[in-house]
Amino acid sequence: MKKVLILMSILSIAFHSQSQDNKVYWTGGGEWIFSFVDASDGQNEWGSVMRFSPVFNFQTMANYDLSEHLGIYSGLAVRNVGFIADTEPGTRKKYRTYNLGIPIGIKIGNMDRMFLFGGYEFDLPFVYKEKTFENEEKTDKAVIWFSDRNSTTMHSLFAGVNFPFGMSLKFKYYLSNFFNQDYSAVIDGTSTMPYENVEATIFYFSLSFKVFEGKEFYYKEYY
Fold first, then answer.
1. Nearest Cα to 83, choosing from 75, 92, 91, 74?
2. What is the architecture, at CATH level 2, of domain 2-212?
């Protein structure tokens, strides 16, 4: 965590020092996430069902263009990340966390129109939610702030393409297990570790939409 804060401080100083040259600009927007999971409980593979999360995904980025064809960026994002899995016949589980993300990325291409981008993101989950459905009827629900059930930090890699008019397509792969395998709970007087052997790796495709570039309306130059 200290390394991340130090890196963010360095990036902030670098962005600020260049702002007088008008090379730094801010972008922000939403994201539609289509997520999947590669998961098993040590004995059985879980069936993955696509999860669509279009809301409460926000991001704001500080961009610094080194040239017309090369740039770097970082910022903050809040994302609704999770998955849906059929853990056994007749049982479907829905998991998700709200994450505060800090991406560090690079852009290559035409900075005013179409370019490729990629990088690394550090996530801090702050809300955990779990639902259980038995034969399509909800039987259990848990909503926990700063839960021990999920990994306390998550790491991911991403890559994508930004199209003209501000839309971008991204693929993201989490390097961290979604669950904290050391989590334990007492149920009916018995201590249990429900995620001890569970491996769950989330990956997703998303559509993002930039609305503003600095103080200028993003679409202005095309009209």
1. 92
2. Beta Barrel (2.40)
* C-alpha 90: how far from chain center: 29
- Per-residue pLDDT tens over the stretch 37-49: 999 998 899 999 9
pLDDT recorded at residue 2:
52
φ and ψ of 21, to 5 deg: -90, 5
In angstroms, the CA 141 to CA 128 distance is 11
Residues 6+ apart with CB under 8 A from 139: 132, 133
Measure Cα distances from 146 to 21, 126, 149, 179, 210 in Å: 41, 5, 9, 13, 30
Parse the chain into domains and list their residue ranges. Answer: 2-212
Closest CA to 177 of 140, 152, 194: 152
**Spatial separation of the C-alpha atoms in residues 217 and 167, rounded to whole Å:** 14
Residues forming beta bridges with residue 214, ordered by sequence position: none
Q: 51-83: per-residue pLDDT in tens?
A: 999 988 999 999 998 998 999 999 999 999 999
Q: What is the pTM of this model?
A: 0.83
Residue 69, Cα to own-chain centre: how many angstroms? Answer: 26
